[in-house]
Amino acid sequence: MLRGLYDGTVALARTRYALWALGLVAFVESSFFPIPPDVLMIPMIIARPSRAFVIAAVATLCSVLGGLFGYYIGFALYETIGVQILQFYSKEAYFTEFAVTYNSYGAWAVLVAGVTPFPYKVITIASGVTQLSLPMFIAASIVARALRFFLMAALLWKYGAPIRDFIERRLGLMFALFCGLLIGGFAVLGVM
Fold first, then answer.
1. How far is residue 181's CA from residue 62's CA, in Å, rounded to a whole number?
2. pLDDT per position as a tens digit, 103-154
3. What is the number of structural domains in the chain?
4. Where is the chain membrane-spanning (predicted)?
5. What is the pTM of this model?
6. Looking only at Cα atoms, what is the longest distance across the chain?
7. What range defines the domain where residue 69 resides?
8. 8 A C-beta contact, residue 109 and residue 79
């Protein structure tokens, strides 16, 4: 099932509606869809490097808007829809315990999930359930998604197809390490 969704998403990158499709995928990925917008962004940017930053801007804007929809799912529709989404991603079992301490580090969680392979949609729903400050959620989402998508766009714009393998396989790990070091540094300094 996921392979079919993946192949269909990549096929959208070859159409004249690719930018619209990217916006749609970025929106739904932030609240429930399993395929990340990177799958569309990579072939789109390789095909038209001059539009790399426009593509990143569309992905960022639509991802943040989708994150707001995920927040709404957590805030108002958790019992009906949110639980099912978390079950799909095998995150429901630990969600209750996670939600208890979530707001202490909510903005950091949004930031980390927004740039790493951790399902961002889980954090958007958690933010709504725990009623994380909406301005804080929006600000952290903008920073995280812009960092992820504009960095990817910059790498593809500069290095083209050769960097594709690195992005597809290792960029999530690099973001995770970077975020871990960043949070660890703040913890050592006593900022958190």
1. 28
2. 677 777 787 777 766 778 888 888 898 888 999 999 999 999 999 899 889 9
3. 1
4. 20-40, 52-73, 136-159, 171-191
5. 0.77
6. 50
7. 2-189
8. no
